[in-house]
Amino acid sequence: MLVAPFVYDCIQAKIAQRLDFAAVYMTGFGTAAARGFPDLGLLTMAEMVENVRAIAHAVEIPVICDADTGYGNPLNVWRTVREYEEAGAAALHLEDQVWPKKCGFLAGKQVIALEEMVPKVRAACDARRDPDFVIIARSDALAVNGWDDVERRCRAYREAGADLIFVDGIRTLADLKDYVARLGDLPLLYNGALLPVAELAKYGFKVTIHISSLMAAYVNFRDTLRELKETGQVSVPALGRTFEELTELMGVPAAEALAKKYD
After folding, report:
1. I want to staple 37 with a disulfide (CB 3.0 to 4.6 A). Which of 42, 94, 138, 181 is the partner?
2. Where do the domains of the chain lie, and which CATH numbers do they carry?
3. What whole-number distance in Å separates Cα of residue 28 and Cα of residue 68?
4. How confident is the model over 57-90, as pLDDT tens digits?
């Protein structure tokens, strides 16, 4: 099972690569949040592609990307796939929500008809130039219509050519078990952190995108600023070494060496 932590900027992606993660997941929730917006379909395709390009150029590991609903009809999906692939993405997922969409764990989602989504999946598969570019079909129908509709949709999306199936909104262990019981014969992606990675791997998922990295980044930064505000200082062990590690991670020594070559 491939584990891809949530990232929304280049430094997070570089840390993941340094720690030997095999891939990262460019979160739409985090990409929107980093620009000051809620994950309610307020970012455009161009803004998302801009972040895809930045992250993909910063690391050598594959970048799995949120592509929302594809930003329109099958023709829009075609262009979205071409733009994401050109920007350096290794995979993207398209969801069957109406536009504007919502974060998969928010209440009040709505989904388009299966008959509207299947052509979008087909268009996405046809649009890719590289046959190794991974198309992930995501369904948000669980909270809206229940498992019977989810299963019908996911099997249709797989039949339409999707490489991976992604049911979002898995909130409980019962949901997780139903996910595998109903669709375990398909290649599945899981989004969440209900169980440790070793336990999740036993369920047969091909990919897990791990939201805990996004939540931890928020909590740690919030608590650090709270400490600074309340005490006037921040406890950072070995501050000097941490700064050196960060500058090395961001390529300062390599850039300086390159500059000397042309002095």
Report:
1. 42
2. 2-220 (3.20.20.60), 233-263 (no CATH)
3. 7
4. 999 999 999 999 999 999 999 999 999 999 999 9
Q: Mutual orientation of helices 45-58 and 10-18 as an angle, nearest 10°?
A: 40
Nearest-5° angle of CA 159, CA 160, CA 165?
A: 70
Considering only CA atoms, which of 22, 18, 43, 24 is closest in space to residue 32? 43
Question: Residue 110 and residue 98: Cα distance in Å, rounded?
Answer: 6
In tens, the pLDDT along 190-233 reads: 999 999 999 999 999 999 999 999 999 999 999 999 999 999 99
Separation CA 241–CA 186 (nearest Å): 47
Number of C-beta neighbours around residue 184 at 10 A? 13
Residue bearing tokens 């932590």: 5
Give the residue among 85, 79, 61, 69 at the shortest CA–CA distance from 7: 61
pLDDT interval class at 263 (50, 70, 90): confident
pLDDT of residue 235: 82
- pTM metric for this prediction: 0.94
